[in-house]
Write a structure and sequence with these properties.
The structure holds two protein chains of two kinds. By secondary structure, chain A is mainly beta. Chain A has strands at about 5, 10-15, 20-25, 30-35, 45-50, 55, 65-70, 75-80, 85-95, 105, 110-114. In chain A, strands 2, 4, 5, 6, 9, 10 and 11 form a seven-stranded mixed β-sheet that branches. The N and C termini of chain A lie far apart (about 30 Å). By secondary structure, chain B is mostly beta strands. The chains are: A mainly beta, B mainly beta.
Chain lengths: ~110, ~110
């Protein structure tokens, strides 16, 4: 248990569906991250929020829309996804968005797009 | 460009020692992390190196050589529960928390 929770743990959706992934951290951290983990590929950073402000957006398609209503919660809204978006989506948090700080990960949401 | 290289798979025997290597070519360097990830679970933090040398934590040690762009994770007295993926990640910018990850090394420990 790392103090970062994600729901749902598994999600199957069609290409026309709209769904949301939720992340919550109980560590008092100020930075939160979304990563995509595909088979045989490195973790890819998608978005970073620091103090509820988006500070990093790594050329992610607009069908992925993040939201950070407060420093403890992070959402990833999904719409009109493609089958190649099927992957493990990991949330992480760290005390600050800065050098030397360790990121702590949630267990991930396994997403399958049909 | 940015590149982190690790072996894809390794196998070792219970009770033995295994070394997982990581080489990196990045535009800058501000620390290297090792994470352990069991199948279907969250990556968990193992170690952080920012200066050259060896950091020891129980059965796990991590080494860094900045001049060679090289790190290794050393696992001693291997246990079956050490079967997992080991991720190497580099922070290449000094003013952000952005990490560049390798693809991970899947370690299988056999009896």
């Amino acid at each position: 248990e790392t103090g970062v929770t994600q729901t749902p743990r598994h999600l199957v959706m069609g290409m026309t569906n709209k769904k949301s992934l939720k992340c919550e951290q109980h560590l008092g951290h100020n930075a939160m991250y979304w990563y995509k983990q595909s088979a045989k590929k490195p973790l890819e950073l998608m978005f970073v929020y620091s103090l509820e402000e988006r500070v990093e957006n790594n050329s992610v398609p607009s069908r992925f829309s993040p939201e950070c209503p407060n420093s403890s919660h992070l959402f990833l809204h999904l719409h009109t996804l493609q089958p190649e978006d099927s992957a493990l989506y990991l949330c992480a948090s760290s005390l600050i968005w800065g050098a030397g700080d360790t990121q702590y990960f949630g267990p991930g949401t396994r997403l399958t797009v049909l | 460009g940015q590149n982190i290289d690790q072996p894809t798979e390794m196998t070792a025997t219970e009770g033995a020692i295994v070394q997982i290597n990581c080489t990196y070519q990045t535009s800058g360097f501000n620390g290297l992390f090792w994470y352990q990830q069991h199948a279907g679970e969250a990556p968990t933090f193992l170690s952080y190196n920012v200066l050259d040398g060896l950091e020891e934590k129980g059965r796990f040690s991590s080494f860094l050589s900045r001049s060679k762009g090289y790190s290794y994770l050393l696992l001693k007295e291997l246990q079956m529960k050490d079967s997992a993926s080991y991720l190497c990640a580099v922070r290449d910018e000094s003013n952000t928390g952005k990490l560049i990850f390798g693809q991970g090394t899947t370690l299988q420990v056999k009896p």
